[in-house]
């Protein structure tokens, strides 16, 4: 069967799924293509982005941070101000509307940090859908407030006890549920990965970040940013903001992976940053760079931020890396934690640990740049969910 | 031996078992016992860290196999050992795509040709993505799955491209699910028959010899995985259990 839209990004992407799911992917693609041409659907989506999510989110000039670094002016796209505290809700809302359009009244979702789970539970409550969230036991322990939030919103949180009991395994479990209940259920995948058409759909629903940011930034400063920075786990916040600037060759773009305890430690989630383990492979329905051992078994990953703690990267990022349109780099746990503290103290913003990776890299870039130059950082989420993690690390250091 | 050389007068018993569970030596002995006591085709599992089409029993078994250090290389060597012990029935390898990519598709095919592998089952490699593998596979059959959700026009496409046998998934679900079979199973079989003379083997959720016999009546054979693993995992005499189980199932299918 032929897909309607291209299923690959160069050699990456595709539909590496069990036969049972192929018709569901075809159905999803068709519903998505139809919905894109349907003004009623678009009006509902855009209306809820404004009235429910709180879009457009502003861009904030980080003046004290910029002054302290003494170089480029740093601006923050404030996805942390979205309802539920992160960019995840843009995509969750779009897909939940698609699920309804397909007549599916149940959604399943995976979650690592809990942000996508909370976003899915929230839009499910809004639209009257049944919502089941798969979450690894390890993640449940380290992100407990988000578990309570999901349950208060009416979702069922199912602990995942297989494999490493983290995000990777919760995706396996969500896919198994979807295979079993595919007639009634939509898999509300939270990042720009998985089988086609997910990477394309997720990018489309997150592209609102880039579209807004380009317009706002030009209006505020009269020009485009010299550099654009976002963190990359699966890669949805980054592809969202990048999409607004990919056709601007004068904007240099950086994706920041989780360097964990450092590349040489082996404890990280840097798919591009560690060529000894990050190789082209197939996981969760897509061909892309995957951290794996020499036998092709998927490696455990480490990051202080649960949202970046994943062994694979969205297939479009693999293509953007090959073409060198985007530069990929990494930031360690320690650097991210320092950036977190700095942003709290200097700007009055508690960034998510994921977003702190992007801030940390911007802090490295800024001093080497001129005062008339600018950096735009996607502040993908807020850090309230990370307080337990941060406080226990600080307690351990004292 | 090729699958096409099997005598189709009786229904096929196709047990699945992963090499390396509960340890490598025992798994070789178990597979030998299954093969020599009535299995018509053996589906040998190659373990993967993220088996998304499998239920908890197979997940658990393959995880143990991995923690025992099973690799593609050791799997291929074990199959060679089985051939050396006089196992001549068609052996089919079942595994996920990534370990094969890591091993190298061309190298993998050369190796399986040398040990007379009769077919490959790769649950996360649908026909549309199989081009690279088919280019190097030559005459080794790629066994394709048909699911209860597969639409008619796609069944024709799959049937024309399938080799070995057609793996008919009995339920909309994962391996080892206890739920009852999809209602449209007879329609799916009729549709496949219009486009292919290959044997049709039904798998997923077959957990007794009686259910195997009833299911096989619909088609040409049954694939039994989770039930075999459970029976052997719970026993302190794995070879004895495998022998008895193969005899029970094959005689139920030869009535």
- Globally, the shape of chain B reads globular
The largest β sheet of chain A comes out as: 6 strands, mixed
- Overall 3D shape of chain A: globular
Cα Rg of chain B: 17 Å
CATH superfamily of chain B: Aldolase class I
Instruction: Give me the strand/helix succession of chain A.
Output: EEHHEHEHEHEHHEHEHEHEEEHEHHEH
Number of helical stretches of at least 4 residues of chain B: 11
Strand order of the largest sheet of chain A: 3-4-14-9-10-13
Concise description?
Chain A is built from 14 helices and 14 strands.
Written description of the protein model:
The complex is a heterodimer of chains A (398) and B (255). Chain A has 398 residues and is α/β, with parallel strands linked by helices. Chain A folds into two domains: 9-51 and 88-199, 3-Layer(aba) Sandwich (Rossmann fold), CATH 3.40.50; 56-85 and 207-397, 3-Layer(aba) Sandwich (Rossmann fold). Chain A is built from 14 helices and 14 strands. In chain A, the strands form four sheets. A six-stranded mixed sheet of chain A has the order 3-4-14-9-10-13, with helices on both faces. The model of chain A has no long low-confidence stretch (mean pLDDT 96). With 255 residues, chain B is an alpha/beta fold. Chain B has one domain: TIM Barrel. In chain B, 46% of the residues lie in helices and 14% in strands. Chain B has eleven helices and eight strands. Chain B has helices at 24-36, 56-67, 72-84, 97-103, 105-114, 131-137, 152-161, 185-195, 209-218, 226-233, 238-253, and strands at 12-18, 42-46, 91-95, 117-121, 145-146, 166-169, 200-203, 221-224. Chain B has an eight-stranded parallel sheet. In chain B, helix 1 crosses helix 3 (72-84) and helix 9 (209-218) packs parallel to helix 11 (238-253). The mean pLDDT of chain B is 95. Chains A and B meet through helix 1, helix 8 and strand 11 of A and helix 2, helix 4, strand 5 and helix 7 of B.
């Amino acid at each position: 069967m032929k897909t309607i839209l291209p299923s690959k990004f160069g050699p990456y992407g595709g539909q590496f799924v069990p036969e049972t799911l192929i018709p569901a992917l075809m159905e999803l693609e068709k519903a998505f293509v139809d919905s894109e041409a349907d003004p009623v659907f678009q009006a509902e989506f855009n209306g809820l982005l404004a009235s429910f999510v709180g879009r457009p989110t502003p861009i904030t000039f980080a003046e004290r941070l910029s002054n302290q670094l003494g170089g480029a002016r740093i601006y923050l796209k404030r996805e942390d101000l979205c309802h539920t505290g992160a960019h995840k809700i843009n995509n969750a809302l779009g897909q939940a509307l698609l699920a309804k359009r397909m007549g599916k009244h149940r959604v399943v979702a995976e979650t690592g940090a809990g942000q996508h789970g909370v976003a899915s539970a929230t839009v499910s409550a809004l639209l009257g859908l049944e919502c089941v969230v798969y979450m690894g036991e390890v993640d449940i322990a380290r992100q407990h407030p988000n578990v309570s939030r999901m349950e208060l919103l009416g979702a069922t949180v199912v602990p995942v006890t297989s494999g490493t009991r983290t995000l990777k395994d919760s995706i396996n479990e969500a896919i198994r549920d979807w295979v079993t209940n595919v007639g009634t259920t939509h898999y509300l995948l939270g990042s720009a990965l998985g089988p086609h058409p997910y990477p394309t759909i997720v990018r489309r629903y997150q592209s609102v970040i880039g579209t807004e940011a380009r317009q706002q930034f030009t209006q505020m400063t009269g020009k485009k940013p010299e550099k654009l920075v976002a963190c990359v786990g699966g890669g949805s916040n980054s592809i969202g903001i990048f999409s607004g600037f990919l056709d601007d060759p004068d904007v240099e773009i950086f994706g920041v992976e989780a360097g964990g305890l450092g590349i040489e430690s082996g404890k990280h989630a840097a798919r591009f940053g560690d060529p000894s383990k990050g190789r082209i492979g197939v996981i969760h329905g897509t061909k892309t760079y995957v951290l794996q051992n020499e036998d092709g078994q998927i490696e455990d990953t480490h990051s202080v931020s649960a949202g970046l703690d994943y062994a694979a990267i969205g297939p479009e990022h693999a293509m953007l890396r090959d073409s060198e349109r985007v530069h990929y780099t990494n930031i360690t746990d320690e650097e991210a934690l320092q950036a977190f503290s700095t942003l709290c103290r200097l700007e009055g913003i508690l960034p998510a640990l994921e977003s702190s990776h992007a801030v940390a890299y911007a802090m490295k870039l800024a001093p080497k740049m001129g005062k008339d130059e600018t950096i735009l950082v996607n502040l993908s989420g807020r850090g309230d969910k990370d307080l337990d993690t941060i406080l226990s690390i600080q307690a351990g250091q004292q | 031996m090729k699958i096409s050389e099997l005598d189709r007068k009786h229904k096929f018993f196709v047990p699945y078992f992963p090499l390396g569970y509960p340890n490598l030596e025992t798994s070789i002995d178990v597979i030998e016992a299954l093969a020599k006591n009535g299995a018509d085709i053996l589906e040998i599992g190659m373990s993967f860290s993220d088996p998304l089409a499998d239920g908890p029993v197979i997940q658990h078994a393959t995880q143990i196999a991995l923690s025992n250090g099973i690799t593609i290389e050791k799997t291929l060597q074990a199959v060679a050992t089985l051939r050396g012990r006089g196992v001549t029935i068609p052996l089919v390898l079942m595994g996920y795509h990534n370990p094969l990519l890591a091993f190298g598709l061309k190298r993998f095919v050369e190796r399986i040709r040398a040990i007379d592998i009769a077919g490959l089952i790769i649950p996360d490699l649908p026909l549309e993505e199989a081009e690279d593998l088919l280019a190097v596979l030559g005459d080794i059959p790629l066994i394709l799955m048909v699911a209860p959700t597969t639409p008619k026009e796609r069944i024709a496409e799959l049937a024309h491209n399938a080799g070995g046998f057609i793996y008919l998934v009995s339920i909309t679900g994962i391996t080892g699910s206890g739920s009852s079979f999809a209602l449209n199973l007879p329609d799916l079989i009729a549709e496949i028959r219009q486009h292919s003379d290959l044997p049709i083997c039904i798998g997923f959720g077959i957990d007794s010899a009686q259910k195997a016999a009833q299911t096989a009546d619909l088609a040409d054979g049954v694939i039994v995985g989770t039930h075999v693993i459970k029976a052997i995992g719970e026993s302190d005499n794995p070879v004895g259990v495998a022998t008895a189980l193969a005899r029970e199932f094959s005689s139920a299918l030869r009535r």
